[in-house]
Automatic annotation (TrEMBL):
GO terms for molecular function: ATP binding. This is ATP-binding cassette domain-containing protein. The keyword ATP-binding applies. Residues 31-251 form the ABC transporter domain. Keywords: ATP-binding, Cell membrane, Membrane, Nucleotide-binding, Translocase, Transport. PROSITE patterns: ABC_TRANSPORTER_1, ABC_TRANSPORTER_2. Belongs to the ABC transporter superfamily. InterPro entries: AAA+_ATPase, ABC_transporter-like_ATP-bd, ABC_transporter-like_CS, ABC_transporter_ATP-bind, P-loop_NTPase.
Length: 261
């Protein structure tokens, strides 16, 4: 079973961020993954995985299909239990299920609820004004009372993002949330996610098949292969990121590493 625990930070611990985030408070928590194993019957999906994610860090996980990316995300979210190993959340305060939010490829909106009611699902009625304000932040101020079927795919994902962020999470887990979107909408959503991450400082783990997206958004890229960390790439590019020669070179390096697995 996964052991989800909380560790208190020493006051001297600091997380150094890029210039674009130096004036932003970090609300995220550190995640420590130790000797994590996950088996489905005799099939090993994750084996002896060790990973430390700093508070407020944006980590992307890449790799071929079946390498364990989504399984890792589900274990962090406590949606599944590990076969062996520990996941620790280091924070001064108690952490609960609302502090860890997941955004999937499917927005998972309830078709019989309006957009604003989807966003504040499970929250008190007095949260409606906050839900409306957050929908405005994600560009859906004129869609508040519409049904999910009346929105485009990109708009539904914006609503799903607003729903996740209304809880002011300490950890945001993104499981291929932009995979079904067209290229331009995907770029818009990447910009929006990065902007809100910079403002709120939550710890983010993104699972993606898109190497360019990983380089665009992440502080660090983890390559999984057969359930183990095969390689780590540090993205030391200024934000907001431009498709410079350095960007392209790193993108090709990560892509070649993925293809070699």
């Amino acid at each position: 079973m996964t052991n989800l625990s909380i560790t208190n930070f020493d006051d001297s611990v600091e997380f150094s961020v890029e210039k674009s985030r130096q004036n932003t408070a970090t609300s995220g928590v550190e995640i420590k993954i130790e000797q994590l194993h996950k088996y489905y019957g005799q099939v090993a999906v994750l084996e002896n995985l060790n990973l430390n994610i700093r508070a407020g860090e944006f980590v992307a996980v890449v790799g071929r299909s079946g390498c364990g990316k989504s399984t890792l995300l589900r274990l962090i979210a406590d949606l599944e239990k590990s076969s062996q190993g520990h996941i620790h959340f280091s924070t001064r305060d108690e952490i609960n299920k609302n502090d860890i939010r997941v955004m999937f490829q499917d927005p998972r909106l309830l078709p019989w609820r309006s957009i604003v009611n989807n966003v504040k699902l499970g929250l008190p009625k007095d949260k409606e004004s906050q839900a409306v304000a957050l929908l405005k932040r994600v560009g859906l101020e004129d869609k508040v009372n519409l049904w999910p079927s009346q929105l485009s795919g990109g708009q539904r994902q914006r609503a799903a993002l607003a729903r996740a962020l209304l809880h002011r999470p300490k950890v945001l887990l993104l499981d291929e949330p932009l995979g079904a979107l067209d290229a331009l909408t995907r770029l818009d959503m990447q910009t929006l996610i990065e902007k809100l991450w910079v403002e709120q400082g939550f710890t983010t783990v993104l699972v993606t098949h898109d190497v360019s997206e990983a380089v665009q958004l992440a502080d660090r890229i983890i390559l999984l292969n057969r359930g183990e960390i095969a390689q780590t790439f540090h993205v030391e590019l200024p934000r907001p990121r431009q498709k410079t020669s350095q960007f392209t070179a790193l993108e090709q390096e990560v892509l070649q590493a993925v293809l070699a697995t």
